[in-house]
Amino acid sequence: MGAAWEPLAEKIGHQFQRPELLVRALTHKSRIAERSAADPTRDNEQLEFLGDSILGFLVSEALITQFPHYPEGKLSKLKAWLVSSAHLLAIAESLSLGEYLRLGRGEEMSGGRGKRALLANAVEAILAALYLDGGMPAARAFVEARVLRDAGDLEAGVPVGVTDHKSLLQEKAQALKYPPPKYVTIAERGPEHAKTFTVEVRVGKAFNAAAEGISKKEASQRAAELLLAQLSG
Fold it and tell me: How, if at all, do strands 182-189 and 207-213 pair?
């Protein structure tokens, strides 16, 4: 009988030389809190951190190669959509990723296999695992096969209803000759495996807004949307 992660590795299309990296990418921190002494596996948070940076680089690389004539603003909007939690969730669902997550009992009971943040984070962690196991070629192959191929017709631009408020806020601040927006996480609440974040964004000394989200990225986008409304009012 094969290991539980093998069907996922087949879907990804990579033969792991260090399969423990994939296992770690699938391991949520709630599982670590309940693990036995015989289980040395670490959680996927550091891999998620690394994967986020790799994803941003590879998507940027692909966009400037595919669209050398696009201005920076349009490239930024396309990138924001491709690395968004909504798009990563769609990738996770295409891989049936929820079936392979290694969760603690409490997270399992609370529906963790279907939570957007957990699934999106796991996609980034898997990308980091691919990079650590097979280098940039393995990571690039995943991005091309899953992130870019499943994105539809990029020439048509960002899908309707998907707006990068952070980029719009930066453009608005620049147009009004204000300093660039600054984002700060001002609060975190809830248990470790199900946190809610509050992010505040400021433009100069006179304008600020704060919003909550299940990830810092989501909270930042919501805060930017609120502040953009202030500046546009």
Answer: unpaired
